[in-house]
Design brief:
alpha/beta; about 325 residues; about 10% strand; 8 strands
């Protein structure tokens, strides 16, 4: 998986739901067919964009099955963590055990379903416990033992992430089967710079998750991108990374500025509304035959849809 996604875009794909809250299989098939024709390194299912921890076990199985069937030659990365349906004990030892067991179970289901790799949700459930670093390292080792290539995940705390200490980052990256780390800080350029510098002497993948400064993150050393913004305007994300890898400075600058403007319109408060905004953008681009819904979307102003459409028109030059 490592070399398949190096230098490529990996869209974190959403799940289209209907008005009743069920997965809209017809729209999902339309989306998979469209995405299968994009020049990407793979897709990430069960990630935050795909509401992985909010889906039922059966829903996760059906989503992975649909993507595996529709994209047989594409790398599929599955997000794994503790589903929201799992109740966590208060005591430290019991919580650690349940967190590890639930995440390993999800990782094993991904492996059975044909996933090529794992993206491990940061174990924020362990961060407040005694000996937190040791527990979080134990968690990553247990998931890596499932046997699939694994990406660690440095996610900003407001989104449920953990600010790993540099020594913990080093320990995680030294685990067998860990092939890289995705970094998504949202607005902390300094944090990304520091992590990029730490990764500079290693061969593991530095994967950007920085939707709001995608182009700049490549100039800092990102090898590839696993981002929600690529769920729509996928071709524009591909063009940006191609411009960077081919050293076309003028084209890269143009694509980066355009992408930043689109991100400003779609990755904003309420931040978790970006999933629905990506579905709106894909619909406006003709990917879906009708409106697709994110059943977990927060309340958003009715004007948001028009903002997305106008941002899409700008990036498309319409």
């Amino acid at each position: 998986m490592k070399e398949r996604i190096r230098g490529k875009i990996v869209p974190a794909v959403p799940v289209p739901f209907d008005l009743s809250g069920k997965i809209d299989d017809e729209l999902q098939e339309q989306y998979i067919t469209w995405m299968s024709h994009q020049d990407i390194g793979g897709v990430a299912t069960w990630a935050h964009t795909g509401r992985g921890l909010k889906l039922s076990d059966d829903e996760r199985v059906s989503v992975l099955e649909a993507w595996r069937s529709g994209c047989a030659d594409m790398a599929i990365v599955c997000g794994v963590g503790v589903p929201e349906s799992v109740e966590l004990p208060r005591e430290a030892s019991g919580r650690t055990r349940v967190v590890i067991e639930a995440t390993v179970s999800m990782a094993q289901a991904a492996k059975v379903g044909g996933a090529d790799g794992l993206l491990v949700y940061p174990p924020s459930w362990l961060a407040s416990l005694p000996q937190a670093d040791e527990r979080m390292l134990e968690y990553h080792i247990a998931v890596a033992d499932v046997g699939l290539p694994m990406l660690a995940f440095f996610l900003y705390e407001a989104a449920g992430g953990v600010s790993y200490h540099p020594s913990l980052v080093e320990s995680i990256l030294n685990i067998e089967n860990v092939v890289g780390m995705k970094v998504a800080t949202l607005d902390s350029v300094v944090t990304f710079q520091d992590l990029a510098s730490q990764n500079g002497t290693r061969n593991e993948l530095l994967i950007t998750g920085e939707d709001r400064f995608l182009g700049y993150s490549f100039s800092l050393g990102a090898d590839s991108a696993l981002v929600g913004i690529a769920a729509a305007v996928t071709d524009k994300c591909v063009s940006l990374i191609e411009a960077w890898t081919s050293e076309q400075a003028q084209r890269f600058l143009h694509e980066s500025v355009a992408m930043d403007a689109f991100a400003m319109a779609t990755f904003r408060a309420p931040m978790d509304g970006y999933v629905q905004r990506m579905l709106w953008a894909a619909e406006a681009d003709g990917v879906f035959s009708r409106e697709a819904f994110d059943r977990h979307a927060p309340l958003m102003p009715t004007s948001d849809r028009d903002v997305v459409r106008k941002a899409l028109d700008r990036i498309r030059g319409r």
